[in-house]
Every structure is written in structure tokens, then in C-alpha cells.
Amino acid sequence: MDPVLRITKKAPRPANRFKLSNRQTAARIPNDEDEIITSFTLLDDVQVRPRYVHYGPDAGQYHETLDEEGPDGAAKLVDKVWKQYATDVIQKIGNPMGTPEKSRQPSYCIMPFDDRRDVTPEQMEDPNLAIFFRVVNLKRVDVAGWEKVFDYLFPCPGYKLPATARQYPSMTFYLDWARLIDSVPESDVIHVRRALKKQFDKLAWAPAAQSDRIWIYKPEGNLVTYPGAKALKVSGPRIVWNPKRKCKPVWIPPAIMEMREEEEEDEEEGQGQGADDEMSE
């Protein structure tokens, strides 16, 4: 008798559930309107030591990397790191995991993966969490807690990641930052980090970064879950709210935002038509 073959069909992967693994985050593509952020232009005088490369195993010395345009200044490099930070953080938002049911759920981030590459720091200044998340856990922190997160994301020169580190080693902004801050004269490190911190303090939120990872998904009792703004103890990406910003988190899904914008446009058109009718009379 021929053996009976049973084929088990796997549940289809949701269209917006993306396999992240440990792949390197995609580099942000600058656009024609890009300008260096004003606070970073103050770093134009900061000298960045050139990086050296070793040409072959038998080379007897290190040689300066050739660059026809000369080495980039600190202002341009810090600006690049900062803008890459925003897209990297969103690119690394993961998927529900742990059970067969969760493995069939879409990503915690509502953005298509290609759109994540175009995220800007300005978008992360918006208190509307529904721009990015399907569900998110918010943690309130004081100023010291906020600054601790900054130190994890943009550490001082010579900082070494723990051997168990996740996400950081595959994030472009973090690798670029580590190379940059190690190439800045010791006397200028404080100025570079201060300029970056000024921009960081404009954000509404940041991932609840720890020493070994940027994104945490485990629920805890002191977290507030959105949507709903309740302590639901559900899994989801954890963020910290900026205590320096005088704003509250809101949840307005993109579809509702579009509907409101259309209503406002219709209202403006109606007012304009009314004014035209009065003039014609």
C-alpha cells in the first residue's frame, strides 16, 4: 500500500509582518531638500580625526583613507547619524512572538517596511503614537530616566556593548555614531553630544532602550498601553515619554486623521463658496 502523505498548510504570513532577524538596517537616502540642522552647524569647527585602513596583511603601516572631497566635518556626520537614528528605530520594531496565534499577527508597526526607511526625527516629535504603532506600551520616566536612555543610544567614546547585545550591532546609526565619537578630540566630545541631546529633547518619545537592546516587548504593571491608555499588561514595543515635553500622548489613527483633514478641506471650500456668493450679490 502506498503511504498516505499529509500536507499541513501553514497559515499565511500577514502582509505587514516582516522578517527582521539580525540584518543591517537600510541606510537612509538623503533627498534634495536636506539641510544640516542648525544646531549641528555649530560643530563645523570640530575636527574629526581621519580613519585609517590597513592595505593587505603585509602592509607595514596604516594609510589614510583617500577622499577626493576631503573628510566630512563633524556637523555633517552628526546630522547624518541623527537622521539615520529615526529610521533605524522604526525599522527595528518587531512582530508579536511566542505563540502560534501571535505568529500570525501583523507587525507592531503599522508602516510598510519600505516606508520606514523614510521616517524623520520630526515625525517622532509628534505625540500621536498611532502614526507608527498598532499597539505600544508607554513608560513614564523622570529627567534622569530620559537621559539614561540617551546615554544608551548615543554612548560616550570607548563604550563596549555587552556580549549579549541585540539590535545595536545591526543598526546603522549606532555603528556610525560609535565610529564618529571615537574620532572626535576628547575636548570636543561634550559639544558633539550636547548638540545631539538638544535634538533628542525635542522628541515626544524614545524606545525604552537598555544596555543590551533597544526594543523590549515584555509587559509590566507600570506601563500604559495604547490604544486605550490603560494598564492592560499586553506584549508590545516599550517606549519612554519625554518628561521635558509639555504634551500628552494621543492616539489618532491615520484613517481618522485623513477623514478630519477632508472634512476641514470641505469646510474651507464651503466657506470660500459662501464668500463668492455674497460678492456676486
What is this entry, summarized?
By secondary structure, this protein is an alpha+beta fold. It contains seven helices and six strands, in the order H-E-E-H-H-E-H-H-H-E-E-E-H.
Q: Tally the helices: what do you get?
A: 7
Major beta-sheet overview: 4 strands, mixed
Mean pLDDT: 84
Q: Helical amount among residues, as a percent range?
A: 25-40%
How many domains, as an integer? Answer: 1
Radius of gyration (CA) equals 24 Å
Order of helices and strands: HEEHHEHHHEEEH
| Low-pLDDT segments | 52-70
What's the total count of β strands?
6
Task: Write a structural description.
- The longest helix is centred in the last third of the chain and has 27 residues, at 254-280.
- The protein starts with 37 loop residues before the first helix and ends with a helix.
- The relative contact order is 0.16.
- It is of the alpha+beta class.
- Helix 2 (74-91) packs antiparallel against helix 5 (172-181).
- It has seven helices and six strands, in the order αββααβαααβββα.
- Residues 52-70 have low confidence and may be disordered.
- It has one domain.
- 32% of the residues lie in helices and 7% in strands.
- The strands form two sheets. A four-stranded mixed beta sheet has the order 4-6-3-5, with no helix packed on it. The chain has a two-stranded antiparallel ribbon with strand order 1-2.
- Residues 260-281 have a biased composition (Acidic residues).
- Residues 258-281 are annotated as: Disordered.
